[in-house]
Amino acid sequence: MSFCFIRTYENHNCLQIEFKYTKNHIEIDLLSIRDLKESLETTFKRIALNLRKRFENLSIDETDINLLDKENQIVSLETKNIDAWKESYTFRIKDQEFKVVLNLPSVKKLNLTKVLIAGMPAFVKCEFEGDDLTQKIIEQKSIFKWYLSNTVYEPVDLIEQESNKKPKNLSINMETITWSLIDQGVSKQMIYLNESCENRLIKVECYPKDGQREGIAVETVSVSPVLKQIDKDKLPMTQRHMQTKNLLDSNSIRVVTYNVLANCYSDTSLAKTDLYPYCPLEYLDFKYRKILLINEIKNYNADIIFLQECETEFLEGDLRIAMPDYTSKSKVKGERTKEGEAILFRSDRFKFIESFDIGLSQELQINPIFSRLWENISKDSEKKKFIADRGTILQVNTNDV
Hints:
By secondary structure, the chain is α+β, with helices and mostly antiparallel strands. It has twelve helices and 19 strands.
């Protein structure tokens, strides 16, 4: 028996119906988005219409379509979609039957970091179908398998690649590549790449699971080979990491503060030519630099981390995967600014109680304590405008040990 995949989107008050219909040895994917409150009769009319459009001379209407419950009884056509579709029901179109699969664990997006460096962490971003809770469950239960290509490719010039604004075309037939499994595990979205990975491609397979069922596996392959390992003796973080090899015990607390230099500031002509002309271009490329940042911040083994100029995408999309043992709270500086402050703390040591933030320019203007100071500032219109337009914020977390 074939399958009919049903996915409900209650936030959008709709469901998705997907199945493969076959006629005269021709198989076509059918997908229909219907209102949750719509009756089966109306839904079946639309499905019949879609089938007639896709298959010439197909004689079919809503009377040829049924939904059967587990006792093989026909579900009433007056039943609304939200109540009609159940796991293991049978969806029947003429003589073809489909087993209903409801909200099967499914991968929506799977992407490797675009730049991979030997000796550094590599991680894959994964988005699953479903609400936030469902996605979290699937993320914690899914299996990730990491593979290394058996073929060694020419080294990539990152600067040349970035100047062209597109990945180097390797002209590779993906079907001819052979792979070796190098790591796997439940929720294993990050691994460290050793020196043997240099100039090879990386592939990741995700097998989505919710604890009881397994969905269809999805894979992604790196857009370019792994870059050569950096000489760690030349990295300032190497010496600092010698002092932070282990987590501290409960009698001590290690605090790290770090200005990330947001991508919105570093990836500009001004940054490359005027602000940081002494800096190699790859270190201003955030796709490259963020791998080094993650490696540095992670290996400080801190209890509490304060980050400045931290963009939400970096915090939620990268650090959350690389540092799953930490809870994070953040605040951007304003609607026009992508970056802000972030606080990360070890979830096993601290219990979050509350958080609040203060916009310093607003605080100066509305807090009576600063009325005299603001009065003096206001005497100079240029200084007043400069301070009023500043997005500087103070973020405060209250935690319990």
